[in-house]
Design a protein that fits this description.
alpha+beta; single chain; globular
Length: 138
């Protein structure tokens, strides 16, 4: 837990007990999680506190949002050194149609896309949908 506290402090986030627990939960999952998943894991916690924790993590480069096409925003921990900038750190996401899990494929980068003059990108998201290695048995 001390390692998580130090990490949060390095990211300029005060390591409250709930923030440490949410970070630990997400690190153990290794998949993208929805707010509802976190609510189910921490049933005694206030929904607003959980949501604010995710927003604080996002604002400080600890998590990033994923729109996997399910209509439910998911959150995943950023890799060390990630800065979630469009120009430098875009990676692929994979959504399994069988188990409904979404994972970051951080080693598979999205190439830079040159937009026409006058267009400004604010978000880029590439999700591949199919059957994950766990479900395909390979």
């Amino acid at each position: 837990m001390k390692e998580i506290e130090t990490f949060l402090e390095d990211k300029k986030v005060r390591p409250t007990a709930m923030r440490v627990l949410i970070y630990k939960y997400m690190a153990e999952k290794e998949i993208a999680v929805a707010l509802a998943d976190i609510e189910n894991a921490f049933t005694k916690a206030d929904r607003t506190t959980l949501y604010r924790t995710l927003k604080t993590f996002e604002e400080n480069g600890i998590v990033h949002q994923i729109d996997d096409g399910t209509g439910i925003t998911k959150y995943a921990l950023c890799d060390k050194g990630c800065n979630c900038e469009i120009e430098q750190d875009l990676h692929l996401h994979f959504h399994c149609l069988n188990c409904n899990e979404t994972v970051c494929l951080t080693k598979h980068k999205i190439p830079h896309i040159n937009l026409p003059e006058g267009y400004l990108a604010e978000d880029v998201n590439l999700v591949v949908k199919g059957i994950c290695e766990k479900c395909s048995g390979q």
